[in-house]
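Record passed on underneath.
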Amino acid sequence: MEVMGHVGEALDAALLARDSATHDHSNRVIQLANELGCACGLSAHELELLEACSRFHDIGKIGIPDTILHKPGKLSRDEYDTIKRHTTMGSAIIRRINAPDIETLARIVEHHHERFDGKGYPAGLAGEAIPLLSRIVSIVDSFDAMTSYRHYHAARPCEFALETIAREQGAQFDPELCDQFLNIAEEVIEDKKA
């Protein structure tokens, strides 16, 4: 991970120590994002950035209280507002690092919960105003969140997640990236089962 070097390794260790489930999720997001990024024809440099932002897209959860982060039921409006802050907290953490492309990386982390229709957070960006790598992370982050155990839901079948992604094409997710993801879905499902 040349983008952030030893600082990145330290942040990765901190995330593992703070919340192993989020750390494991990030590792799965790295793999899925790389598959989608390769299918989209990203350059080697873009793939390196994609790996870094995939690894640290949820780094801001370090600052979320356990009572919210590990709550088994539905979050209240205030709790949901708190969890949404992980995007801006994460970008603020990343911006403290002195490394090449750090501003780009921080922006990608900050906007991975934007929606293609402009109804996401934190800035309500829409369409191509959302950084491309944020749009990629959004799809694979959602896929892994749906198909993995969470405190608030059981792991759902891959087919359910793929149907959800297809249904949200053009609303939550970039339609062209959805097409690419759905095209590699069989490979993704096999990897998920492994």
User: Anything to note?
Assistant: Residues 91 and 105 are 8 Å apart (CA to CA). DSSP finds eleven helices and no strands in the chain. The mean pLDDT is 90.
